[in-house]
Amino acid sequence: MYSSVAYNNNLGDVPARVNRVTGELQLNPRIWESLSRDYKNYILYHEDGHLVLQTTDEAEANRYAIDKFLPIAELSDNEMERRILVLTEITDINKTKAFGRNKPDPGSNESNFDPISLIVTAIGGIVQTLPNLGVGSKSRIKEAQAAAAAAAQIEDAKAKSTTKIMVVGGFMLIAVIIIYLSLKK
After folding, report:
1. What number of other Cβ atoms are within 10 A of residue 177's Cβ?
2. Can you tell me the distance from the alpha carbon of 62 to that of 122, in angstroms, rounded to the nearest whole number?
3. 113 in Cβ contact with 103 (< 8 Å)
4. What is the three-class DSSP state of 106?
5. Is 142 exposed, middle or buried (0-12, 13-18, 19+ CB in 10 A)?
6. Distance separating alpha carbons of residues 20 and 138, to the nearest angstrom
7. pTM of the predicted model, to two decimals?
8. Distance between terminal CA atoms of the chain?
9. Measuring CA to CA, which residue among 104, 10, 122 is closest to residue 56?
């Protein structure tokens, strides 16, 4: 995590940045205070991606942030919808340009911001979340019905086997009784 967090009014149009050497997170108060809680969380994951991965690559930091921001199995439908809206907002090229993320930091080896990579990654995450939102539920219902039908067939087979065993056992018991009564006379 971050070694310290500080406000920095000299970040221009960038909402936050992290020093990968010291671990200090710097927040632009002018932008930071205007963001929603979810948007702030995404930015924190993004900056954490720079720190953890030790990269200046925006696309790598975005992939890291999306993986952390959309923990599919843990989110309610409402939370998932809110976060998808944030991702939609983040992938808005005009907004990322407003945040100054379409150009590398001066003196870095960083490539230009890659919105296509971000969008593809975001879409992949969204597609994985669709079943949690109820999309594709018809196919899940069909799967459940098929599983129930298979379970019913297994139960029927067990019941038929039990019936056969009882019938054969009954005939054997009758045969034993007949033999016993024949021998007793």
Report:
1. 10
2. 9
3. yes
4. coil
5. exposed
6. 47
7. 0.52
8. 95
9. 104
Q: Mind listing the pLDDT tens digit of every residue in the chain (185 residues)?
A: 789 999 999 999 899 999 999 999 999 999 999 998 888 998 999 999 999 999 998 888 888 888 888 776 677 777 777 777 777 777 655 455 445 454 444 444 444 445 555 555 556 555 555 555 555 555 556 666 666 677 677 777 777 777 788 888 888 889 888 888 888 87
Tokens coding 2: 């971050």
Angle between helices 58-69 and 77-90 (to 10 degrees): 170
**Cross-strand partners of 18:** 25
Q: In what order do the strands lie in the sheet with 24-27?
A: 4-7, 24-27, 16-18
Query: If we measure between CA atoms, which residue out of 79, 84, 10, 14 comes closest to residue 46?
Result: 14
What is the rounded distance in angstroms from the CA atom of residue 52 to the CA atom of residue 1?
A: 8
Q: How far is Cα 62 from Cα 45, in angstroms, rounded to an integer?
A: 8
Q: Given the structure tokens 């990654």, which residue do they identify?
A: 121
